[in-house]
Amino acid sequence: MNKKAKVIAFYLPQFHPIPENDEWWGKGFTEWTNVGKAKPLFRGHYQPKVPADLGYYDLRLPIVREQQVELAKEAGVYGFCYWHYWFGNGKQLMANIFDEVLSTGKPDFPFCLGWANHSWYAKTWSADGGVGSKKLLMEQCYPGMEDIRLHFDYLLKAFRDPRYIKVGNKPLFYIFEPTTLPQLYIDKLQEWSKDAGFSDGIFLVANSVYKDPTDAFLNKGYNAVTYQRLCCAKYQFHYYNRLQRALFLIKRHCKKLIYNYPLLSEEYKNALIIDPATDSLNCVIPAIVPNWDHTPRSGKNGRVFFNSTPELFKQQVSLALRTIADKPDELKILFLKSWNEWAEGNYMEPDLKFGKGYINALKEALEEK
What we know:
By secondary structure, the chain is α/β, with parallel strands linked by helices. The chain has one domain (6-368): TIM Barrel (Alpha-Beta Barrel), CATH 3.20.20. Helices cover 33% and strands 17% of the residues. Strands 1, 2, 3, 4, 7, 8, 9, 10, 12 and 14 form a ten-stranded mixed sheet that branches. The chain has a two-stranded antiparallel ribbon with strand order 5-6. A hairpin with a 2-residue loop joins β7 and β8 (170-175). α5 (145-159) crosses α6 (183-195) and α9 (261-270) runs parallel beside α11. The longest helix is centred in the middle third of the chain and has 15 residues, at 145-159. The radius of gyration is 20 Å and the shape is globular.
């Protein structure tokens, strides 16, 4: 009997104060600060997005993390991919949430790590929900061998946890910016993981855009690629209708960043895992995207998926499941972007408008398959 697909949802370990954000944006700043201040920028724009069942939670509370897992299980999510921020020389941000998950053994729910290996700029975290400056806040560095060893020793503790998601014997490790990661890091992570008892090394997944050839990543030592199709010029907002365009321009919003989700969803369905650069699709992991609205962070420069609904998301999931149906069981993986990226309008958790709509949509698609 074929095994069910494993849906791995990206998980943001934020939503609690950290010293750095206190310094940069003011005491007590979290993602909720911008989420709560968000305003609609054009007619029909769903803002602010208000959490329902879990409320404006604090991830330092273990009970919240347990409740998130219960909702994820209800949706059919297999596990979380916790975003991991390692900037070099041992410097991390927002590591306390995952460290507690690791040390306590709770929640008892599969997980892996995704290295968000990019620098932080002021434009990414805007205290007033608008666009900040391009001031560098935290630089992503690759200092060399000593840092690689320090990083690997940290990762190894997670890899050895029985909850850690593996593909065969390989711990799954996701790289957000694979093109900037030095080859030495890839080689050493693979070498040392074998020395540590993972005979086949790490299952490295490269985040990419559809124009990047998959073979280029495979030749560097990655095992798989996933494409993040968060924009498509063909389906930008100015293809929607004249009335909305007029209202949109009155608000002085950049029309190039608004996408009609019903049409964009077709793009996801028509080119979900197609990669002309490789003969095999086994190395390409599809990503499903329920919604997107970056305006709480970026104001009028934020990208928006307009008219997103659970029903359209369900169609996208069903297609994704069909594309992986003939893969080997261990490669029947879907990445879900994301579980709780509220300030990007990219989440599955219940809100006041749709309730558990997206959770039910995913559940139904998985059960029908």
